[in-house]
Design goal:
single chain, 97 residues, mainly alpha, two-stranded antiparallel ribbon, 3 helices
């Protein structure tokens, strides 16, 4: 594999791990932070407890959007075959983008 492909793969792995860690922290902070009260003290959003809304509903929407933009701007389509044609052109295309 060319060096540019290795760097791109490492970049994508780092972005994926960072997004996953932030989503996990988001879920834990809202899920356990707001949900750590008596049931009578809960506030509700659209009929759902606020901890559930923020951790599961809003968190899913926020991080789905972040994943979409990460895929659009940071991830690149790269060949993963060892025997792909025009290897030099594939690496140059990645370098130019």
């Amino acid at each position: 594999m060319k060096e540019s492909i290795k760097k791109q793969i490492q970049k994508e792995v780092i972005i994926t791990c960072i997004l996953y860690i932030f989503y996990f922290l988001w879920w834990c902070l809202f899920g356990f932070g707001l949900g750590n009260r008596k049931t009578e003290e809960y506030t509700y959003i659209f009929g759902l407890p606020s901890w559930f809304f923020y951790s599961c509903i809003l968190g899913f929407m926020v991080f789905s959007t972040l994943v979409y933009f990460s895929l659009k701007y940071f991830f690149k389509d790269i060949p993963l075959d060892e025997n792909f044609e025009n290897e030099e052109q594939g690496c140059e295309k990645i370098d130019k983008q």
